[in-house]
Structures are given as structure tokens and as C-alpha cells.
Amino acid sequence: MSRPSSARSSPTPTVSRLIDALAASGEKALQAVRSARAEVRHRAWSLAGENAPDADGQVTVDLDGVLVLAHSDKQDAAATWKKTHGHHPLTAFVDHGPGGTGEPVATLLRPGNAGSNTAADHITTAQLALAQLPKRYRRGGQTLIRTDSAGGTHDFVSWLAKRGRWLSYSVGMTVTEAIHEHVLKVPASAWTPAVEADGEARDGAWAAELTGTLLDGWPKGMRLIVRMERPHPGAQLRITDADGMRITCFATNTTGWPIAELDRAAPPAPGTGRGPDPGRPGHRPAQPAPARHRPEPVWMEIVQIALDLLAWMPMLALTGRARLWEPRRLRFRLFSAAGQLVTTGRRRILRLARHWPGEITAALERLALLPDPG
Q1: Average pLDDT over residues 184-194
Q2: pTM for the full model?
Q3: pLDDT of 271-290, one tens digit each?
Q4: How many angstroms separate the CA atoms of 154 and 122, rounded?
Q5: Closest to 126 measured CA to CA, from 101, 102, 151
């Protein structure tokens, strides 16, 4: 007896059919997914309490571009500035601070030859990121936007500081010849010792604020902070470095902070080994990688949902060092745990091997105490 033809053919995986259906709906499906993500994010933050990224009344969003290699001629794959082939998505992550990791809030898919200093792309990504935050953080100084020097353009900084938006920002700037000349004129008394992320003084590093004609044409209230330090062993000096010292700078509109504190919270500076890591360990590099497989906006939204769950689970259920575990460690320490679910006496009992870490049962107990989402 022959089988029906439908049984003989290989069925399309359910997830692929779902992605195709959502992609066919276009912008309508994207808006629905993004709206749902924003609503659940607000709920997760409210449940997290003191572990939420806005527990101190401020939210920090890091924007950064990442090169994603493609080994075949995928959609929008192109030659990159590193002479590779692939994509150059621009991502945005909410920083959870030193006690956590971070969570994705936006990804803008771009071809591999997309420019680093494209203000329009930074504005679009920032808009998508802000739409993911609770409404009270979508404008105002309590939201800090950080980027490296790729975001140091007139148009992007002006957009951040626009009247009615008034976002706080800390944006890396390219060291131009004019900035280099001003650095050489800064008196020794104006330099302040720089500090490490833990607040301790950093040996061989100083920070100062530049003023004068350098700020002409930039938004009102912008401050230009420059950092001078001895380069790390093996680091190559650039033409803009002075007297064997590495020079980096960033722009900010934050007031009331000492220069050393502003420098400590500055965006990452290539070649110095300093600055906060956008997204914290593990999450940021994992985010854009699926662009190698299906470089589609809907697919990236689905990937970000998975990464949201990876960020919210430690925030709600884990404590201590476990909140800093990277996805690989979460997989081996928690997600790979073998167990047996037993139903008896109208009760469900999860049996785990004795050698598995106690973080699993402790996390389940914390999750059980959370209100029923209904």
C-alpha cells in the first residue's frame, strides 16, 4: 500500500513556515512583535525590583556595530571594511550594570559594506531601542545613550540633544588634528588621574576637559573629555597619539560629575582596554550571529526574543556570580540538567540528580514566588 504523496515529501519545518508567514505580513508583523516585546520587558523589569536595569532611576543603552561573516552569498551580504564578506548589523543593548549581563532592545540589519559613521542608521537604531523601554525612559536625561566613535557625528549628537528629547549621551569622538593640537596645549595642572571601573586610580592614565573653539557647531551643553594613557604592551601608536601616549576622547552632556567619573562611564575605547562592555559577557556577540542563516528583520526579532529570555531569567531567578554567566555556561550548568517530572497526589515533583548545582532549585523557588502573569 503506497503512502500519500504528502507523507512522502519532506515537510517544511514549523518554525520556517512561521517565519515565512510573518515575513509576508511585512511591517505589520514587525510592529506587533516589537510591541509585545516592549510590554513584556516592562513587566519583567517591574518584577525584578532592585535587580532591574532601571533600579537606580537611569537606563543605559549601548549602541555598537558588529561584523557577521557569511560564507555564502546571503541576502545583503557584501565585502566589509576588514576585507571579509558578510553583514554589518547595528545593535542596541540595555546595560544591567556590574551585577548583571544585558538585554537586546534593537538590531538594524545592514549589508557588510555599511558605513560605521552613518548617522541615519544610529538614529534609526536608537529610535527602535527607545521604543522598547518603558514610556518614562523614551525621552529625558534619565536615559543614557552610549556609542563608540562611530556615533560621533554632528547629526547623531544633535538628534540626541534635540529639544523635547533631551537624552543623556556619552559618544566616542575621533581624535582629529584640531583635537590633537588642543591636547598638546592642556597644562599639566588640568589633568585628573583616571580611575578603573571599580573606582580605583588607574596607573598611567589621566583625563581632562577640552573647551574653546572645538565645540563650535556642536549642540549646546556638549562637553569634550579627553583621556591620555600609556598604551597596553603591543599596542601600536597612531599619528594622533602624543609623546608615546594613547589619546582618546568622547563627548557628553552630563553635568555634576567629576571628570574622572565621566571618563569611567565613557564608551569603550579601542586599544586602551577600558570602557564598559556593551551587553556584558556573552550576550552581545551572540545576538547578530543568526544573520548568517536568515538575514531577515522578522528572524532577528525572534532571535532577540530568545536573548530577552536569556537576560530576564538570570535577572529574576539567579543571584551572585550566576547572574554573570554567559549563554554557554548557562547551557552547561542549567539547561543541560537531566531531570524527571513526576505527577503524584495532584502534585508535580521535579527530581534532579544530587550532583547538579543548587542554583536550579533555588531559581525555580524564586520564580514560583513571582505573581502569576495571568
Answers
A1: 89
A2: 0.84
A3: 444 444 443 433 443 445 55
A4: 12
A5: 151
- Continuous H helices in 49-187: 119-131, 154-160, 177-185
Round to whole Å and give the CA distance between 176 and 52. 39
**Residue whose C-alpha is closest to residue 127's, from 148, 144, 105:** 105
Give how far the C-alpha of residue 335 lies from the chain's centroid of Cα atoms, to the nearest Å: 24
| Cα 196 to Cα 339: distance, rounded to the nearest angstrom | 43
CB proximity list for 29: less than 8 A, separation 6 or greater:
22, 23, 298
DSSP state of 350: E
- Which tens digit of pLDDT belongs to each residue from 199-214? 777 788 889 999 888 8
Give the pLDDT of residue 142: 95
**How far apart, in whole angstroms, are the C-alpha atoms of residue 265 and residue 198?**
11
* Sequence-separated (6 or more) residues with CB below 8 Å from residue 230: 204, 205, 244, 245, 246
- Nearest-angstrom CA–CA distance, 39 and 132: 8
**Closest C-alpha among 29, 54, 30, 31 to residue 41:** 54
Determine the distance from the C-alpha atom of residue 305 to the mean position of all C-alpha atoms in its chain, rounded to a whole number.
14
Which residue reads 551643553 in cell numbers?
Answer: 221
Report pLDDT digits (tens) over 131-158.
Answer: 999 999 999 999 999 999 899 999 999 9
Rg (CA), the chain: 24
Phi, psi of 228 (to 5 degrees): -125, 130
Residue among 264, 273, 240, 252 at smallest CA distance from 152:
252
Neighbours of 223 (CB within 10 A): 19
Residue with cell 575605547: 269
Task: Output the pLDDT for position 285.
Answer: 37
Set of cell numbers at residue 355: 550532583
List phi, psi (to 5°) of 341.
Answer: -95, 115
Query: What is the β-pairing status of strands 143-147 and 168-173?
Result: parallel
Which of the pair, 17 or 91, is modelled with greater confidence?
Answer: 91
Average pLDDT over residues 51-72: 89
- How confident is the model at residue 240, as a pLDDT? 64
Residue 170: pLDDT above 60? Answer: yes
148's CB contacts (< 8 A; 6+ apart) are: 64, 172, 267, 268, 269, 270
Residue 78 CA to residue 111 CA, distance in Å, equals 6
